[in-house]
Amino acid sequence: MERLQARVYGRVQGVGFRHFVWQQAQRLGLTGWVRNRRDGSVEVVAEGPRAALDQLLAALHEGPPAAWVRRVEAHFGPAQGAFADFAIRPTQ
Which residues pair with 7 in a beta bridge? Predict the structure, then answer.
């Protein structure tokens, strides 16, 4: 089990990006969260098997149809087991 921490930049707010990430995480069986950041980016923290995290990372580069992803910053580390499910969190 690993943890993916990612920030997604571009036109990623107001286009259903958080819901898109939530759906992908549900489909892949991941835990963690997604939220908008005040700087206009979207932040994602997800835990699960590396193969599933790699699939989520690929999805982050694509986004939903209305999004335009300029760049994704991603880091992997060991899972911490801190989440029971995958949630959409309030903007921070």
Answer: 43, 73
**Could you say which of 3, 7, 11, 18 is catalytic?**
18
Torsion sign (Cα): 24, 30, 35, 41 = negative
34-49 mean pLDDT: 98
What pTM was computed for the model?
Answer: 0.96
Q: What angle do CA 8, 19, 67 make, to 5 degrees?
A: 50
The active-site residue, picked from 35, 36, 70, 71, is 36
Question: Residue 11 pairs with which residues in a beta bridge?
Answer: 68
Nearest to 16 by CA among 48, 62, 54, 56: 62
State yes or no: is 89 an active-site residue: no
In CATH terms, the fold of domain 2-76 is: Alpha-Beta Plaits (3.30.70)
Whole-number average pLDDT of the chain: 97
Domain parsing of the chain, residue ranges: 2-76
The answer to whether residue 18 is catalytic is yes
